[in-house]
Amino acid sequence: MSKTLSPRTEAILKSIVEQYIARAAPVPSQSVLHNNGLDVSSATIRNEMMRLKQEGYIIQPHTSAGSVPSDKGYRHYVESLDDIRLPLNQQRMINHLFHQVETRVEEWAKLTATLLANMSQNMAIVATAKPDNCLFKHLELVSIQDSTALLVLVLQGAVVRQQLTVFDQPVTQTELSAISNRLNGLFEALNNPGIQAKKAGLSDLEKSITDCILNIMKIEDEIEYEAPYMDGLQFIFNQPEFAGTRQTTTSLALTENKNLLRVILPDKLTDRGVHVIIGKENKSETIQNYSVVISQYGLPGEAIGCIAVIGPTRMQYARSIASVDYLAEVLTGLMAWLYGRKIVPESDN
Asked: 209 with 261, same domain?
C-alpha cells in the first residue's frame, strides 16, 4: 500500500472512491466535504483533490465536472481494505446450499457461479478443478454388441469419460470383465507415463484397450481448464458505464470467448488467496475497462480450479473480494473431502 498520502488525503480519496462506486457519477468537492466528516474548509478539500489529481489518483472527465477514481486510485483503495469477510449469516446460507449438493460434484461449479454473481452483482466465472496429470481410478467394459464395448473410465476426482471401442473379433462380457479387473489392478493410481510402462506383457486385446485409456488421459492432461461456468452477465449490462452499444458488444464478446479464462488470468496465479486486477493492469486490452477479482481453489499438486468476478472498475471491491475468498474456501474443503484429504485451517492472525 502506498505511504505517500496523509490520513486526511487518504480519507478524501476513500470518500471519492466510495461515492463514485455507489452513484456512478463524478464526485464534486462539496459532496466530499459533506460525506467524510472532516473539519476542514471547502478550499482545503479542493486543494487536496487537486493534489490527488496531480499524483494520478483521480481524474476529471470535464473541467467543470467532479472527480472519478483512476486505476491508481482504485488500487490504493483496494490495498487499504482490511478484515474483509462475509457476514456470518451469508456464510451459513452458503454452507447450507452446498450441503444440499454435497454429493453431486457436477453441481458445485454451477452453484458457485450463481451465488458469486448474485453476491457480487457482477459476472462470475468458475472453472472446475482438474489435476495437472490425471490419475487412473477405475475401468468398466460393457458389451454392446459382439465386437463393440462401452469403455467407462473413472479418473481421480470423480471425472468420468466414456468411449465406444470396436474390436477385431467378438469379445464376451465375461472376457471384458476379466480384462477390466486385470487392468484395474495394474493401473491403480497411475498417470499416463506409468500406464505406458505397464504395457509390456499385456495381450493384444488388453493393449488395444490400454491405448484407448491412454488417449483419453492424454486429452484430459492437455486441457488447462474445463469450459467454465458463467453467470451474471445481466449485471454487467445494468451498469451505466456499459450502456453504450460498443461496451455492450464487448461484454457479449467476453461471454462468447472460448479462451476467456486465459484472457482474465494474470501471468502469475500461483499464490493462495484473492488477487485483484484493476483496469489497465489486465494484460488483455479486451478487459481493460474491467476489474477482475480471482482466486484459485483446490489441492496444490492434485487438482486446481479457479473462480473469478468480472465487473466495472467501479465495483464493490470489498463485497467481491469477500465472496470470492469464502467460496474458494468452501470449494477447497469440498475438494479435500472428494480426494480424502484434510485441510489445515489458516490462522486468523
From this structure: no
Residue for grid cell 472512491: 17
Does residue 348 belong to any structural domain of this protein? no
Write down the pLDDT at residue 145.
Answer: 93
Q: In terms of domains, do 231 and 334 share one?
A: yes
- Kindly report, residue by residue over 301-343, the tens digit of the pLDDT: 778 889 999 999 999 999 999 999 999 999 999 988 888 876 6
The verdict on 238 and 126 lying in the same domain is yes
Domain identity same for 214 and 230: no
With respect to residue 284, please indicate whether it lies within any of the assigned structural domains. yes
Q: Which residue has the cell 476542514?
A: 40
Residue 335: phi and psi, rounded to 5, are: -65, -40
Question: For 200-231, how does the pLDDT look when each residue is reduced to its tens digit (9 = 90+)?
Answer: 889 999 999 999 999 999 998 887 666 788 99
Cβ(91)–Cβ(73) under 8 Å?
A: no
Q: Is there a single domain that holds both residue 106 and residue 229?
A: yes
Angle at which helix 317-339 crosses helix 71-80, to 10 degrees, equals: 60
Q: Domain tally for the chain?
A: 3
d(CA 272, CA 328): 10
The boundaries of the domain holding residue 182 are: 136-222
Rg (CA), the chain: 26
- Residues 47 and 96 occupy one common structural domain: no
Mean pLDDT of the chain: 87
Q: Is the pLDDT of residue 1 over 80?
A: no
Q: Is-contact 338 158, C-beta < 8 A? A: yes
Question: 3-state class of 160 per DSSP?
Answer: strand
Q: How far apart are CA 223 and CA 81, in angstroms?
A: 36
Q: How many CB atoms lie within 10 A of CB 148?
A: 14
Task: Tell me: do 155 and 176 sit in the same domain.
Answer: yes
